[in-house]
Write a structure and sequence with these properties.
59% of the residues lie in helices and 11% in strands. The chain is an alpha/beta fold. The radius of gyration is 36 Å and the shape is elongated.
């Protein structure tokens, strides 16, 4: 019984050790990818800032904000949600935080009498909503950990087409904002119509500013620039989500590795205790047998026992005594 328990514990310890190797490797991989993801976020920031500055200059030059991407609808009937999560799991609560946030907002809109549409980015949100019977208007997968600008352009073009045609009254973006290595926040923000605060602020902007001449008309340039602005915003969200995914997976795998180490220690103690119990039981059986043989000889039993040595008894067990010269069963001294 004890020997079977010991073998089972050994198999379990070996399994946990194998799992620990995997989680440790995934932790190191995620740690190395976080640095690259942060570099991409930093590299994309100047472009986003510059395109925002150009829009401000266009507004200062008198560009009209008549684009469908800027003007809110008088009546909101259908609200679309772009849910950005991961293609893979093992990232702690990263996926669930984004999915639950979008799900709560969708439920609130439905209670208010609005229709909702769903665009998923990543295999995890796609599988989650499809399993629960949600109708998915479009899904995009395969680039959650390393998105490119072309990926953002494809998603933005699909959403902008539906929004400009009037099929969607509003579009909200659910993603995880990367603040630092230890802080990522799941957010649901308005994506379309685009936030025109930059244009509104331009009219109130004071202080010296450069005087630009635009060719063609500023309104026409703004019309062409707004789709690029929408793509830049979505691309920045994708990069934030990718960095957050790697950070969450690195933390989750580190925690899993530490838990595996603790489990190996606990299982080792249990196995040692089981081995010690087995050895103690065998020693008690040996001593009991030797005592029975001594008692039988003392009582004049018919058993032909001249002298029993504990070494002879140990031959039938897997335990080898260190010293046996003081444990003769037939010793009368």
């Amino acid at each position: 019984m004890a020997g079977g328990q010991e073998r089972a514990l050994k198999r379990r310890i070996k399994s946990v050790q194998s799992t620990k190797k995997i989680t440790k490797a995934m932790e190191l991989i995620s740690a190395s990818r976080i640095a690259k993801a942060q570099e991409r976020v930093a590299a994309a920031r100047p472009y986003s800032e510059r395109i925002t500055e150009v829009i401000r200059n266009l507004a200062a030059a008198g560009a009209a904000g008549d684009s469908p991407l800027l003007n809110p609808r008088t009546e909101v009937t259908t609200v679309a949600y772009v849910v950005v999560a991961a293609d893979r799991g093992l990232a702690g609560g990263y996926n669930s935080a984004v999915i639950r946030g979008a799900e709560r907002r969708m439920a609130a809109d439905q209670e208010a009498g609005k229709q909702t549409a769903l665009i998923t980015v990543g295999k995890k949100p796609t599988g989650y909503f499809r399993f629960r019977g949600y109708e998915i208007a479009a899904s995009f997968t395969g680039f959650s950990d390393a998105p490119t600008y072309e990926d953002a352009r494809e998603v933005a073009a699909h959403v902008a087409e539906k929004f400009e045609s009037g099929e969607y009254s509003e579009v909200h973006l659910a993603y995880t904002s990367f603040l630092s290595m230890g802080s990522q926040v799941a957010e649901v923000v308005q994506y379309m119509p685009l936030d025109n605060a930059a244009i509104d602020d331009a009219a109130e902007k004071s202080g010296p500013s450069a005087d630009y001449e635009f060719e063609p008309d500023p309104s026409e340039i703004l019309e062409r620039l707004l789709p690029r602005y929408a793509e830049a915003r979505l691309y920045a969200a994708f990069l934030d989500a990718a960095a957050s995914e790697h950070a969450a997976r690195q933390r989750a795998m580190k925690s899993a590795t530490e838990n595996a180490e603790d489990m190996i220690v606990r299982l080792g103690r249990v196995m040692n205790r089981a081995r010690q119990d087995a050895i103690t039981t065998e020693i008690m059986e040996i001593v009991g047998g030797a005592e029975a043989l001594r008692q039988a000889q003392t009582d004049g039993s018919d058993l032909l026992v001249d002298k029993v040595n504990v070494e002879d008894i140990f031959k039938h067990t897997h335990i080898t005594p260190h010293r046996t010269d003081h444990f003769s069963a037939g010793d009368q001294s």
